Amino acid sequence: MQQETREPQAPVMVLVRPQMGENIGAAARAMLNFGFDRMRIVDPRDGWPNPKAVAMASGAGKVLEGAGLFPDLGAALEDCDRVYATTARGRELVKPVLTPEEAMAEARALSAAGKRVAILFGPERAGLENDDVARANAIVTVPVNPEFYSLNLAQCVLLLSYEWRRQAGAALPHRPVPDLARQIEVDRLGDHLEERLEQAGFFFPASKAAGMKRNLRNMLARWSLTRPEVQTLHGILRQLSRRD
Amino acid sequence: MQQETREPQAPVMVLVRPQMGENIGAAARAMLNFGFDRMRIVDPRDGWPNPKAVAMASGAGKVLEGAGLFPDLGAALEDCDRVYATTARGRELVKPVLTPEEAMAEARALSAAGKRVAILFGPERAGLENDDVARANAIVTVPVNPEFYSLNLAQCVLLLSYEWRRQAGAALPHRPVPDLARQIEVDRLGDHLEERLEQAGFFFPASKAAGMKRNLRNMLARWSLTRPEVQTLHGILRQLSRRD
Predict the structure, then answer these.
(1) Class of A12-166 per CATH?
(2) Contact A94/B179, CB-based, under 8 Å?
(3) ipTM over 0.90
(4) Do the Cβ atoms of B34 and A202 come within 8 Å?
(5) In this predicted structure, what is the pLDDT of residue A2?
(6) Given its phi and psi angles, is residue B217 left (phi above 0), alpha (psi -120 to 50 degrees) or beta?
């Protein structure tokens, strides 16, 4: 029992724009196999609730009943401290690319320190978009056969859940845990930065503005900002932009 | 390539009396994700070859083409040195019950020594019978949630294959190395930041200036800045500080 109470809270599994209800249900089953029960669903293609998801989930229906529904990824991540994006494709984004083992080791240490961890899973066909990945602090890639990759959504959820549970046996490494900022705090910092740069005419030419903004968000996510750093950066932005 | 040749030969995956062709195909896909390609099939319910298995296997068809067909489990295991039976149920048989991690660690050591390892997977509905398990040297049980167990055949094959591959060191095929900025570049960025903040009256009161500057340098170091990020930050500083 003592060990039970020390088991850190499992990550939130975030399904981003999932398409088929069956796959949402299968993901719920995959989660519950390893005791995960916190799912968030972002903008599901076929609306919510979804009878096909319920039918497929079967005994894991309570995962769906407790799932949070969000209109966009930003809203789904507001209270999260650390975000991992599962993606198989190489990305031009400069972010740590971790194995499930590395990611879940880190996630367990953070969760044990009271931090809220989220893992993002993309839509079945296309996977996460660059704007989704831009919100993540790190990328998780399952080390599959480079010549054959066919993991589906539920299998990907299953492997991450298994990996978390597997490590429950291992003692947590003692590593210092920074006071990470919540996603909503980082989002607001990003808004503040954009606003100041907009006023200063930074986003030029206009045709490149969207890409520039994504790069800035990416950069903020990559740094894994702490709460004091976010405050410092707000202060710097205010001070540098003063016109008096 | 030298590393390749030292990788021990992957275990044989033995499907015992599988029922649905789709599940055999899905198992082939699960295997090939992690580079497994040696399948044996014992007395499949719907005969062999099975068009539904081929359709489901899709790009993993070569696993099915190379699969051995056997009338009974004894024949399938004749040349094997070590046999693991995957089963979720408790057994009255007195045999070691291993986690996938323990089983694959042992299997890797045996394979590296030239031994042939087999892993048994039972029929979808009922699982392995006691007579099947009696042929195994050890039992493998995935540590699932005791209140919810819903792993299907392909998922079980997937987890064992993943576990084998994970223990190989699980190097990711392509891990991008960020274009980290040199220390001198970070130092110059720090100088630039200080200069702009000095002009803007940020370091106030003067008694705290030294500590504030140290915190800023600390922050820049913690972020492990890339070269493009350093350029971006120089640009932001210039643009925000413009007075025109």
Answers:
(1) alpha beta
(2) yes
(3) no
(4) no
(5) 35
(6) alpha
